[in-house]
Amino acid sequence: ISESYQFSADPHVVVVEGLPLTIRCPVTGTPPPNITWHKDGGQLNNTNDLISIKEVGRNDSGNYTCTATNHVGKVSKSFLVDVHTAPMLKEDTPQQLSVLSKTELSLDCSVTGHPSPSILWLNGTHPLSDSGVISLTNKNQTMTIGSINLEHSGHYSCIASNIAGAVEKSFDVDVLEPPSFMGDEAAGNRPSTMQKVMLHRKV
Strand order of the sheet with strand 126-127? Predict the structure, then answer.
């Protein structure tokens, strides 16, 4: 007696990096079929009806195919394994920045991860967004203030997150100003003592 094969498994497998993974090839047939596995076209050293990985890594993503054969026939089934990886900052050291007023401030939050992380910028606890003063570019990985002043001093942070996790990077910004005489601007709008004398003489 011979029977056709029957598969029953989800063809799209999503798993977070570091967790265990089992892919089962639940095939039946008479006589019992021989099973071979391939990953992205390359044959694996596995003849069991399942693949088991204790801790999945990003390199385990790919297309896995199990093939069952006996003298009656041959069938194959593929499984797409998608490993989600937590965000990872390219530079995670907290930064202390001293910036001269009226210059540009640019903070970088370059990050990798799958799926692509979303990035939130904060000034203290206040969320930042694109505005006339603040610009968020490069998929929100770069925050720029075109012309800073003393009010922009303080603590900034970026939080990158996806389904696999989240990371945070901190920046402490100190805005510097060169020395100037107090009241110079106001004094410039008033006539000096000498100007008052000259005006009085003309009258």
Answer: 95-100, 165-176, 154-162, 118-123, 126-127
Q: Is a pLDDT exceeding 90 seen at residue 198?
A: no
Please name the fold of domain 90-176: Immunoglobulin-like (2.60.40)
Q: How many CB atoms within 10 Å of residue 193? A: 7
Domain boundaries, the chain: 6-85, 90-176
At 59, is the secondary structure helix, strand, or coil? helix
Q: Do 31 and 3 meet the contact criterion of CB atoms below 8 Å apart?
A: no
Nearest to 108 by CA among 147, 136, 148: 136
Count of H-run helices and E-run strands, the chain:
2, 16
Question: Under CATH, which number does the domain 6-85 receive?
Answer: 2.60.40.10
Greatest Cα pair distance, the chain, in angstroms, is 127
- H or E segment and range at residue 162: strand 154-162
The number of angstroms, rounded, from the C-alpha of 185 to the middle of its chain's C-alpha atoms is 46
The 10s digit of each residue's pLDDT in 61-71 is 999 999 999 99
Q: What is the pLDDT of residues 114-161, one digit of tens each?
A: 999 999 999 999 999 998 899 999 999 999 999 999 999 999 999 999
Half-sphere exposure of 70 (CA within 13 A, CB side): 13
What does the alpha-carbon distance between residue 136 and residue 131 come to, in Å, rounded to a whole number? 9
The pTM of this model reads 0.74
